[in-house]
């Protein structure tokens, strides 16, 4: 890709605003220079420049015109005239950064290769081969994606079958290659740890070894195909590049995003590590990022196949006696691990990406702006110790607010109570301000729990709702069940009900992640329905998007986007905006909502505040003159969900499936967590292949598809109708 020049707006700190600059991209020397005008450029009067080696491009999913470049501990902010212009600049910049990355890697290889230590020379060659394998692996994946697109366009069944067979072979090959690269990286880190600390070899199952033939084929492929490209890229430019990015004016220094660290008042800016691009990392996880689920197919592996979960136990029987930091983990009387206590312990250390710099920057070098993160591998240490299905259950941490919806006699008050419960749910769904990613549920995985609500308990109640989601729960308890109903795309369905109050909630969510440079966005596609059975009312609501910010330092979560809550029967509806924090100021977690009466264009109630704290309401119809507290989530009780013991759970329940991964993460044994996660996923692949060979379709157990959505098989409204007959 050639150079590029043109006009862009640049944020100027001195005037706190945007000013036009003429930019010239010189990819051959990895430099973006800017001038006050095109005439100044012709005269060679440069205003400043941005070095591109090790730089990170960022975009804002809410603003189609702006983008950022973070490098040399600085963040530059730019604005194009429209989305198309921004796309052109981002693509050219990404290409220039990729070229500079290879040139730097090649320079380092020459320096180290000339040293007297043959050990260093071999390691450099090892890094080069793995990097080349990564490159060609991504090329194969791109071709596989084109084949999948072609399959969708083919109408002839015989021809489609041929392409399907080819796709299956490619997926199998990608799976072997990915596994081989993981083992090679583990071997390299064992022999030469990046941090200078010997961690010992990682214990794997006897089956967890890649075929030597596959490794030899990778090496041969790289040798034959790669040499020509790398020789072509080895030329050097004699142009002098500044040691750091700079601006000629003190007042035009880069804009810094202030206070990005939720636990510090100091300014936190993403950092760039000169050596991090060089360091290889193990591809330890198929999981993409953020607050909700993503796919598990990656740019270095075949997508995880759909399958039903059987028992996935550790090959070591007595887990409590493993050679790991077992003293930090709770034990049962028999010496085995107490998994229930591990799950209930929500204490966690802060996640700092700076301590894993080589991992994160290598990850960023593998992706493109706007790329679907279902094609990206993230490391295991980024995982949160719970499944996505359990995270959805945590949104019911205020079950009393949910049940109160059914108690109001006035439709207007019922709508306000739905909005109040909805806005109170999100803070409880997040365990901390630090962004970590829940486990991707496997196909057929379920999570069940219930809540005891003292103020709604019926004395001496023995009425067990055996046809409900949890057949051993009583009629005065709120019950919840979730199931992963689809893997491609990843769709979770969940349902909750309170039998005595005749209220239920059903929802399905399809999560789709996108890489935004210094942030990760998760689009939550789907809807939820609150059903009041006695009144035959439904409240249909949508979900905000999630964003993981500051992924190079201490990542944090925010929500963004417009959501709606509508009651078709009464005509009441609400519109709520989850406001993202602008880069030039503002607060986090802000919301602004309006609630409307039937057939009215002006809202009768405005809501504003923070979904993580205080939200206030202002009545616009004159019924109340002063603003009042709508809900303060920090002043209302959180009810603890009740989950059956791991030892009593079915084999496809979340906590039992992920117990070994959870134990590994809790004890900070990342190798153990990674190996356990691989066993879960590998079993799924094997079962998916078996189903395909037997031409057997997957059958969900608790939910069924209905049009574009999913519904619970035996909802409360249906059962009550049958009881009345």
Automatic annotation (TrEMBL):
<dbReference type="GO" id="GO:0005794">
    <property type="term" value="C:Golgi apparatus"/>
</dbReference>
<keyword id="KW-0445">Lipid transport</keyword>
<feature type="compositionally biased region" description="Acidic residues">
    <location>
        <begin position="250"/>
        <end position="260"/>
    </location>
</feature>
<dbReference type="InterPro" id="IPR037239">
    <property type="entry name" value="OSBP_sf"/>
</dbReference>
<feature type="compositionally biased region" description="Polar residues">
    <location>
        <begin position="234"/>
        <end position="249"/>
    </location>
</feature>
<dbReference type="GO" id="GO:0032934">
    <property type="term" value="F:sterol binding"/>
</dbReference>
<dbReference type="InterPro" id="IPR001849">
    <property type="entry name" value="PH_domain"/>
</dbReference>
<dbReference type="Pfam" id="PF01237">
    <property type="entry name" value="Oxysterol_BP"/>
</dbReference>
<dbReference type="InterPro" id="IPR011993">
    <property type="entry name" value="PH-like_dom_sf"/>
</dbReference>
<dbReference type="Pfam" id="PF00169">
    <property type="entry name" value="PH"/>
</dbReference>
<feature type="domain" description="PH">
    <location>
        <begin position="1"/>
        <end position="98"/>
    </location>
</feature>
<dbReference type="GO" id="GO:0005829">
    <property type="term" value="C:cytosol"/>
</dbReference>
<comment type="similarity">
    <text>Belongs to the OSBP family.</text>
</comment>
<dbReference type="GO" id="GO:0006869">
    <property type="term" value="P:lipid transport"/>
</dbReference>
<protein>
    <recommendedName>
        <fullName>Oxysterol-binding protein</fullName>
    </recommendedName>
</protein>
<dbReference type="InterPro" id="IPR018494">
    <property type="entry name" value="Oxysterol-bd_CS"/>
</dbReference>
<feature type="compositionally biased region" description="Basic and acidic residues">
    <location>
        <begin position="307"/>
        <end position="319"/>
    </location>
</feature>
<keyword id="KW-0446">Lipid-binding</keyword>
<keyword id="KW-0813">Transport</keyword>
<dbReference type="GO" id="GO:0016020">
    <property type="term" value="C:membrane"/>
</dbReference>
<feature type="region of interest" description="Disordered">
    <location>
        <begin position="234"/>
        <end position="332"/>
    </location>
</feature>
<feature type="compositionally biased region" description="Polar residues">
    <location>
        <begin position="262"/>
        <end position="275"/>
    </location>
</feature>
<feature type="compositionally biased region" description="Low complexity">
    <location>
        <begin position="291"/>
        <end position="305"/>
    </location>
</feature>
<dbReference type="InterPro" id="IPR000648">
    <property type="entry name" value="Oxysterol-bd"/>
</dbReference>
């Amino acid at each position: 890709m050639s150079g590029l020049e043109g006009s862009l707006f640049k944020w100027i700190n001195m005037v706190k605003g945007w000013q036009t600059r003429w930019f010239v991209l010189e990819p051959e020397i990895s430099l973006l220079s800017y001038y006050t005008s095109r005439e100044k450029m012709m005269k060679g009067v440069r205003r400043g420049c941005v070095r591109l080696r090790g730089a990170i491009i960022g975009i804002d999913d809410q603003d189609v015109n702006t983008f950022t470049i973070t490098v040399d501990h600085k963040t530059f902010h730019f604005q194009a005239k429209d989305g198309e212009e921004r796309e052109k600049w981002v693509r050219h910049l990404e290409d220039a950064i990729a070229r500079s990355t290879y040139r730097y890697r090649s320079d380092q290889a020459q320096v180290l290769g000339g040293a007297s230590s043959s050990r260093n020379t071999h390691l450099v060659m090892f890094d080069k081969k793995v990097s080349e394998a990564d490159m060609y692996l991504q090329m194969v994946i791109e071709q596989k994606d084109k084949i999948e697109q072609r399959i969708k366009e083919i109408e002839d069944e015989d021809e489609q079958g041929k392409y399907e067979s080819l796709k299956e072979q490619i997926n199998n090959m990608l799976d072997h290659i990915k596994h081989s690269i993981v083992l090679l990286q583990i071997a390299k880190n064992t022999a030469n740890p990046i941090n200078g600390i010997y961690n010992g070899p990682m214990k794997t199952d006897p089956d967890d070894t890649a075929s030597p033939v596959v490794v030899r084929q990778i090496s041969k492929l790289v040798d034959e195909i790669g040499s020509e490209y790398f020789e072509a890229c080895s030329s050097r430019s004699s142009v002098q590049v500044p040691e750091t990015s700079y601006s000629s004016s003190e007042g035009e220094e880069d804009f810094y995003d202030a206070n990005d660290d939720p636990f510090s008042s100091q300014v936190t800016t993403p950092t760039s590590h000169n050596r991090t691009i060089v360091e290889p990392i193990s591809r330890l996880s198929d999981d993409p990022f953020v607050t909700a689920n993503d796919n598990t197919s990656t740019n270095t592996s075949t997508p995880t196949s759909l399958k039903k979960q059987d028992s996935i136990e550790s090959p070591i029987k007595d887990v409590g006696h493993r050679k790991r930091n077992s003293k930090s983990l709770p034990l049962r009387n028999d010496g085995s691990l107490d998994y229930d206590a591990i799950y209930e312990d929500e204490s966690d250390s802060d996640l700092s990406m700076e301590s894993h710099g080589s991992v994160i920057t290598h990850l960023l070098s593998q992706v493109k702006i706007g790329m679907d993160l279902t094609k990206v591998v993230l490391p295991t240490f980024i995982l949160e110790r719970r499944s996505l299905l359990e995270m959805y259950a945590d949104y019911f941490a205020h079950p009393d607010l949910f049940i109160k919806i059914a108690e109001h006699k006035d439709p207007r008050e019922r709508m306000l109570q739905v909005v109040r419960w909805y806005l109170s749910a999100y803070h409880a769904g997040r365990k901390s301000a630090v962004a970590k990613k829940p486990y991707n549920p496997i196909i057929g995985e379920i999570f069940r729990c219930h809540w005891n609500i003292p103020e709604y308990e019926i004395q001496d109640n023995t009425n067990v709702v055996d046809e409900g989601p949890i057949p051993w729960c009583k009629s005065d308890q709120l019950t919840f069940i979730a199931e992963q109903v689809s893997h491609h795309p990843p769709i979770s369905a969940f349902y909750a009900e309170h039998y005595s109050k005749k209220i239920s909630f059903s929802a399905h969510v399809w999560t789709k992640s996108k890489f935004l440079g210094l942030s990760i966005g998760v689009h939550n596609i789907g809807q939820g329905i609150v059903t009041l059975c006695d009144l035959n009312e439904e409240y249909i609501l949508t979900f905000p998007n999630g964003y993981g910010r500051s992924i190079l330092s201490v990542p944090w979560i925010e929500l963004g986007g417009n959501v709606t809550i509508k009651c078709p029967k009464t005509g009441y509806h609400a519109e709520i905006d989850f406001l993202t924090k602008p880069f030039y100021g503002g607060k986090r977690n802000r919301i602004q909502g309006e609630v409307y009466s039937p057939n009215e264009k002006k809202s009768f109630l405005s809501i504003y505040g923070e979904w993580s704290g205080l939200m206030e309401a202002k009545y616009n119809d004159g019924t109340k003159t002063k603003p009042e507290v709508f809900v303060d989530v920090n002043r209302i009780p959180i009810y603890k969900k009740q989950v059956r013991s791991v030892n009593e759970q079915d084999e496809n329940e979340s906590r039992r499936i992920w117990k070994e991964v959870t134990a590994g993460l809790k004890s900070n044994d990342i190798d153990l967590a990674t190996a356990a996660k691989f066993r879960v996923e590998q079993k799924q692949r094997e079962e998916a292949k078996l189903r395909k060979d037997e031409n057997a379709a997957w059958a969900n157990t608790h939910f069924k598809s209905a049009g574009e959505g999913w519904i619970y098989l035996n909802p409360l409204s249906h059962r009550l109708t049958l009881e009345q007959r």
